[in-house]
Specification:
elongated; alpha/beta; 2 domains; 238 residues; binds nicotinamide-adenine-dinucleotide; Rossmann fold; five-stranded mixed β-sheet; Dihydrodipicolinate Reductase, domain 2; six-stranded parallel β-sheet
């Protein structure tokens, strides 16, 4: 498989290493200083693009790849107000798109556990719930895309919460997401249920970025030859 890497930062470099280890080749690497390289001529022999850039640039990059019929695996977070547009274009125009706010297998198992726990605690109103996430200081968006997915999983399963809010609850039905930015932390997420009697907590702690890069390369392998919109639930059959 010949891959275009769009965004040659921490994730782009990790993906390059893993893709080569898995026997793929890198056809082109595009970062913000060489955006003009993202052209139909340069993408001609590319099988799939893997996009990890910034919230401001992801949408444009995806559309440019779609215009050349290149399937896209995207990991950039913080742009998902436009996700439905991309899914729509993808489905109506027969393009291929894979999106995950978190490509780690462990985190996707955690998502499932989170919804199960929320559905149990829904019946026990003594518990309040909050989500906490910690990432490295260069992360641009807060809360993390992963924390938002966790919060959405709780909202779908817990009748007494109606929306997530950043940092501080104004109303009883607000679900708080607290964000911390420290050192070089690859990603830590906690869901904490607390009553006056006890505390129940589930936590996912990424040890490094390799698990994330691995999931993205697996996603690229998965969408080869397919059309439509895919997520980790398709890849992992969760
Ligand atoms: N989905 C996941 O599993 C996952 C995992 C880690 C990070 N992320 C997200 O992926 C994104 C990138 O993370 P990172 O840690 O590699 O960040 P990073 O800052 O290390 O790298 C981003 C790279 O994108 C480049 N860039 C900026 N604008 C660009 C453009 N228009 N076109 C091409 N390249 C451009 C930057 O120069 C930089 O090299 C962030 O949104 C982050 O939150 C997602």
């Amino acid at each position: 498989m010949k891959i275009a890497i769009i965004g040659y930062g921490k994730m782009g470099k990790e993906i390059e290493k893993l893709a080569l280890e898995r026997g793929h080749s890198i056809g082109i690497i595009i970062d913000k200083d060489d955006l003009n390289k993202l052209s139909p001529e340069n993408l001609e022999n590319i099988d799939v693009a893997i996009e990890f850039t910034t919230p401001d640039s992801a949408y444009q990059n995806i559309i440019k790849c779609f215009n050349t019929n290149i399937p896209v695996v995207c990991g950039t977070t913080g742009w998902t107000n436009k996700l439905n547009d991309v899914i729509d274009i993808c489905e109506k125009q027969g393009k291929t798109f894979f999106y995950a706010p978190n490509y780690s297998l462990g985190v996707n198992i955690f998502f499932k556990l989170n919804t199960f726990l929320a559905s149990i605690i829904n019946n026990y109103p003594a518990y309040d719930v909050r989500v906490e996430e910690t990432h490295h200081t260069q992360k641009l968006d807060a809360p993390s895309g992963t924390a938002i997915t966790i919060a959405d999983g709780i909202l779908k399963n817990m009748d007494r919460k109606s929306k997530w809010v950043k940092e501080k609850a104004e109303h009883k039905d607000d679900l708080v997401i607290k964000s911390f930015r420290e050192g070089n932390v690859p990603g830590n997420h906690k869901v904490i249920y607390e009553s006056s009697l006890d505390k129940i907590q589930i936590e996912h702690d990424a040890k490094n970025r390799q698990g994330l890069a691995f999931g993205a390369v697996l996603a690229a392998e998965y969408i080869l030859g397919k059309t439509g919109y895919f997520t980790m639930n398709d890849l992992l059959k969760i």
